[in-house]
Design brief:
The protein has 231 residues and is of the alpha/beta class. It contains six helices and eight strands. It has a single domain (2-230), classed as Alpha/Beta hydrolase fold, catalytic domain (Rossmann fold), CATH 3.40.50.1820. It has helices at residues 40-51, 79-87, 91-107, 122-133, 174-184, 212-230; strands at 2-7, 13-19, 26-32, 55-59, 111-120, 139-142, 161-166, 190-195. 44% of the residues are buried. This is Dienelactone hydrolase family protein.
């Protein structure tokens, strides 16, 4: 587990946290951050995927605003800064950074070649955009915020995509979830799972919204897709 530097095709570079499996190599996963930067939650997620056999890379997507920022969802004073970073975030440039990360990951000697993405919250939206704008072998979105604004891109999806929706998501109300489900229903590569009675971030271990049963079910579905698509 270490920080590495990735060159941006738009100029400059950004850091990424890299976790490798004990075996030394495996398929790749781009793990896409929430609005709190590469914090302990994201590092732990990457470490867990490495333990499952994947080379997991978490890029710093806020590097243009504040490189190396690390905030906590459980600290009230961190929320205004996290929301400001989110509001000023350029999604298109973020996707470009993720495409650069995907290329970097595939070229790592530890990576066996195939690579997918998995993202949470802001990262959930970006995982959807990676499904529409990249050639990642598969993509998984956890409670992505703002997907409804890019449903017109759903026809571009050519690799498997899972959308995990929290039925009681305070940031993605029921009518928006209905729009998302309707917007992707004609694409057989997209699978939508809705988890009843849970709120946004139900999969964030240690968070107030964490629900173990829903998180474990979602993760089992995610890992099944990774095994099928990445080997």
């Amino acid at each position: 587990m270490q920080l590495r530097e990735i060159e941006s095709n738009t100029g400059g570079s950004f850091h990424a946290y890299v976790a490798t499996p004990a075996a030394g190599s495996g398929p790749g996963l781009v793990v896409i951050q929430e609005i709190f930067g590469i914090n302990s939650v994201m590092r732990n997620i990457a470490d867990a995927y490495a333990a499952a056999g994947y080379v997991a890379v978490v890029p710093d997507l806020f590097w243009r605003q504040e490189p190396g920022i690390e905030l906590s969802s459980e600290v009230a004073a961190d929320w205004p800064q996290a929301l400001a970073l989110y509001q000023n975030f350029d999604e298109d440039k973020g996707v470009e950074d993720l495409r650069d990360t995907l290329k970097y990951l595939r070229n790592l000697p530890e990576c066996t070649g195939k690579a997918g993405t998995v993202g949470f919250c802001l990262g959930g939206k970006l995982a959807y955009l990676m499904a529409t704008r990249s050639d990642a072998e598969c993509n998984v979105s956890y409670y992505g915020v703002g997907i409804e604004n890019n449903l017109h891109e759903s026809g571009n999806i050519q690799k498997p995509l899972i959308l995990h929706l929290a039925e009681q998501d305070q940031f993605v109300p029921p009518e928006v979830q209905g729009q998302i489900q309707a917007g992707v229903k004609d694409n057989p590569l997209v699978t939508v799972y809705s988890y009843p009675g849970v709120d946004h971030a139900f999969g964030r271990v240690g968070g107030k919204a964490y629900v173990a049963a829903a998180a474990e079910l979602a993760e089992s579905r995610t890992l099944a897709l990774f095994r099928e698509s990445l080997g």
